[in-house]
């Protein structure tokens, strides 16, 4: 009986922890989501809207990650390759590290200090992440030159649709 219960619990836990593609692939952000605040490395607070405004007119990739996330760390070399192969677009890294200290340590440890980094001080559950159905990391989004969502859901920097979306936007 204990074995059966254990198998049941593992099955339930496994189902609840897997990355599921959202049913609706959004093409724009809600006003409430855009008001979500994040912190940069210096502790300055900005909104998602301010970040998008800084990159308006350019193709932007949002990379959601954390230093504690094994899948994110495994993807880092390919994410760097995506960035290196697309020097003409912008990348913003949104950290879901659990503390400011963890965020700072991750940036140092994984050589991210030379990139544009922000941290969700409010934690995983917030208006922006809830709106985009963030249920797992890593996650990648492509934002077009007018700040609309061009690629809503990619879980790997090697997703061929990610590069195809970038290429299409640059034509």
TrEMBL record:
<feature type="domain" description="Thioredoxin">
    <location>
        <begin position="27"/>
        <end position="171"/>
    </location>
</feature>
<dbReference type="InterPro" id="IPR050553">
    <property type="entry name" value="Thioredoxin_ResA/DsbE_sf"/>
</dbReference>
<dbReference type="InterPro" id="IPR012336">
    <property type="entry name" value="Thioredoxin-like_fold"/>
</dbReference>
<keyword id="KW-0201">Cytochrome c-type biogenesis</keyword>
<keyword id="KW-1015">Disulfide bond</keyword>
<keyword id="KW-0732">Signal</keyword>
<keyword id="KW-0676">Redox-active center</keyword>
<dbReference type="Pfam" id="PF13905">
    <property type="entry name" value="Thioredoxin_8"/>
</dbReference>
<feature type="signal peptide">
    <location>
        <begin position="1"/>
        <end position="21"/>
    </location>
</feature>
<dbReference type="InterPro" id="IPR036249">
    <property type="entry name" value="Thioredoxin-like_sf"/>
</dbReference>
<protein>
    <submittedName>
        <fullName>Thioredoxin-like domain-containing protein</fullName>
    </submittedName>
</protein>
<dbReference type="InterPro" id="IPR013766">
    <property type="entry name" value="Thioredoxin_domain"/>
</dbReference>
């Amino acid at each position: 009986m204990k074995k059966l219960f254990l198998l049941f619990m593992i099955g339930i836990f496994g189902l609840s922890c897997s990355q599921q593609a959202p049913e609706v692939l959004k093409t724009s952000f809600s006003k409430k989501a855009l008001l979500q605040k994040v912190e940069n490395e210096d502790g300055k607070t900005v909104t998602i809207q301010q970040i998008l405004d800084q990159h308006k007119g350019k193709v932007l990739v949002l990379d959601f990650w954390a230093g504690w996330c094994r899948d994110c760390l495994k993807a880092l070399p390919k994410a760097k390759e995506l960035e290196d192969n697309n020097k003409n677009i912008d990348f913003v890294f949104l950290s879901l590290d659990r503390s400011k200290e963890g965020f700072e340590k991750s940036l140092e440890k994984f050589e991210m200090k030379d990139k544009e980094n922000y941290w969700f001080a409010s934690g995983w559950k917030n208006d922006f992440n809830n709106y985009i159905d963030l249920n797992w990391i890593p996650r990648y989004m492509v934002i077009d030159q007018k700040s609309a969502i061009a690629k809503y859901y990619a879980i790997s920097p090697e997703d061929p649709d990610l590069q195809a979306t970038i290429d299409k936007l640059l034509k």
